[in-house]
Amino acid sequence: MKTFIKFFLIAIFMLGIILPCYAEKIVVEGSTTVLPIAQKAAEVYMKTNKDADISVRGGGSGVGIASLIDGTCNIANSSRAIKDSELDKAVSRGRNIKAHVIAMDGIAVIVHPSNKIKGLTKKQLKDIYTGKISNWAQVGGDNQKIVVVSRDTASGTFEAFGELVLDKEKVRPDALMQASNQAVASVVSRTPGAIGYVGLGYLNPQVKALEIDGVMPSKETVL
Fold this sequence. Notes:
Layout: E1 8-15, E2 26-30, H1 35-48, E3 54-59, H2 61-70, E4 75-78, H3 84-92, E5 97-105, E6 107-111, E7 119-120, H4 122-130, E8 147-151, H5 156-164, E9 176-178, H6 181-189, E10 194-199, E11 208-209, E12 211-212, H7 219-222
């Protein structure tokens, strides 16, 4: 069965030059979806290359790409493709940016574990995030206000969710906008009425993933 959880590519963007790996600190910045992979990769690399100095930080896909263009990082992590406007800006500054796809990911919709809802349709999910549905009773749950949690606009996951679920409509104005996948998961885990979305790697026992149109987010469904 097809689902909105179409699996978006995760990429890193680099300047089209050979980096002097030990002459300076290498800064990696951007997507929090990519953050756990990048942190682990840097850790393993520095263990086997003792002179290497790699700093990894999040901030969102847009932040990482902007930093790469501005010259404040060497590698930008992103869970979306680079935009034409960003590429034009890079070219205008003489920066030759190269993309390297490293993984596929799925977006998981999550709620508090106490929520009795097991799944939603794509339309119900869109109606929740655009404000047409505001109580869990409207989709078969308890009489409880829905607390909408979303990524912020610097996030590649936010852009993917907007295209795949919202048909580019705006998120309801009272949504709690968060700067990272971990922040979304944290808010949902401590808020019984909350709903949010995260990259697949951020699923944990403190939140419950929902089926969307009958499909559960998992490694198997991504593959």
